[in-house]
């Protein structure tokens, strides 16, 4: 019985360790006209479309999030919108990211808005990638607000 428990615990630990990396491959993600909103003090609106984290990879994939809307309003509100993005040594390869007219908005004192479209962060790479983000907007309004927007960006 003890051997079974130890083996089960080992399998769970190993599967958790290997499950950290996300991958999106040979896929089409169609998510036009999405709407996500949070209101009130300390509200947080997070919108992720075609995102792979922690050594994540996106390859041979089309991500379409045209007219995606993400809003947070209220004091200390946060609005995060990530479309076709990878982090932590991630790579986007042979892919098409379409996010025309994507809107990310945070309003209220101390609000912040982050928008990343076609972004590979943390020693990430973009290779043979097309990013369309025409008329995309990222706005933060209110005292001490902060807005940051990245499009087709690798660091």
Q: Report on the biggest sheet.
A: 6 strands, parallel
The helix content is 10-25%
Which percent range describes the beta-strand content? over 45%
Helix/strand order, N-terminal first: HEEEEEEEEEEEEEE
Quaternary class: single chain
Q: If you average the pLDDT, what whole number results?
A: 89
Distance between the termini: 49 Å
Q: In terms of per-residue confidence, which ranges show pLDDT below 50 for 5 or more consecutive residues?
A: 1-20
User: What count of domains describes the coordinates?
Assistant: 1
Radius of gyration: 18 Å
**Number of continuous helical runs:** 1
Structural class: mainly beta
Shape descriptor reads globular
DSSP strand tally: 14
What does this structure look like?
- 11% of the residues lie in helices and 54% in strands.
- The chain has one domain (22-154).
- It is mainly beta.
- The protein contains 1 helix and 14 strands, in the order αββββββββββββββ.
- The strands form 3 sheets. Strands 1, 2, 5, 6, 9 and 12 form a 6-stranded parallel sheet that branches. Strands 3-7-10-13 form a 4-stranded parallel sheet, with no helix packed on it.
- It is globular.
């Amino acid at each position: 019985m003890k051997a079974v428990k130890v083996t089960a615990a080992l399998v769970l630990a190993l599967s958790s360790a290997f499950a950290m990396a996300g991958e999106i491959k040979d896929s089409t993600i169609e998510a036009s006209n999405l709407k996500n909103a949070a209101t009130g003090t300390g509200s947080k609106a997070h919108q992720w479309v075609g995102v792979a984290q922690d050594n994540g990879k996106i390859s041979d994939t089309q991500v379409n999030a045209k007219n995606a809307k993400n809003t947070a309003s209220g004091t200390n509100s946060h609005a995060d919108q990530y479309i076709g993005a990878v982090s932590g040594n991630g790579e986007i390869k042979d892919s098409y990211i379409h996010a025309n007219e994507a809107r990310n908005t945070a309003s209220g004192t101390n609000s912040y808005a982050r928008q990343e479209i076609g972004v590979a962060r943390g020693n990430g790479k973009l290779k043979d990638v097309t990013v369309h983000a025409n008329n995309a907007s990222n706005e933060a309004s209110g005292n001490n607000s902060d807005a940051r927007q990245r499009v087709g960006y690798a660091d």
